[in-house]
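S.,

Sequence below, as promised.
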Amino acid sequence: MQPAGYSAPRRFGAVNGRGLWTLYRRAFLRFCKFAVEGTLGQVVSSALFLTVFTLALPERVETLGGVAPLVFLLPGIVAYQAFHAAFENAAFPVVYDKLEGMMGDVLMAPLKPWEIVVAYVGAATLAGLVTGTAILLLGALVVPLPLASLGLVLAFGALGCLLFALMGFLTGLWAEKWDRYAVVETFLVLPLGILSGTFFTLQAVPAVGRELMRFNPVFYAIDGVRAGFIGSAQAPAAVGLAVLALLCLALFALCWRLTAAGYKIRA
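The prediction came back faster than expected:
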């Protein structure tokens, strides 16, 4: 017989739904707190890209599917800004929580390592999608975009944001200070985006460059999102989806394993 006032310990099943939701909600609300400032910066940079290319491109230039240059450019710019936002919103919270000593509280919570990964990465993926949607809606006021397949836009947009969120989580685990985070962003994230076909087609680069671009997974994400709008792609959609899905699974497994091992997050 248990003494008066005794409370049995809470038992959790295969998934600690309340704990997972709480950590996910905390991570997403952190994005919401600075969403206006963060999204505004992405909008300004997107507008600058469009302005520069509008002034630099000749009046008649051959683009994919024969669409206008700005119609070709806008989906790629929106997609990359969404992916970049997903990376930032995964890497920044992990580094911040480590440096401020809050990661210990997360590790002491009754959460499995994969639940921690899902919470951080899931919130960052949603943050990327929200940012991309906001930029797209504003950009569509200036550049009238067609919509060939909403399914392709959502599938490639979600997989691209998930890929960058996983990369951001890994960066957060590895980075012990802010300059390491900046190194990854400068020497990995930006080159992957710039050399992914965001601003040009495969036909615009030499043969060697075309083959190298096909090894860049971001190329498939950008190409898939753009195909969802203009209806023309440079790579088969099935190939792009398979590449992104397999890479996301591999990175998730790595994040899970490193979190379980306490890699640079456990004293």
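Residues 53 and 70 are 8 Å apart (CA to CA).

Coffee later?
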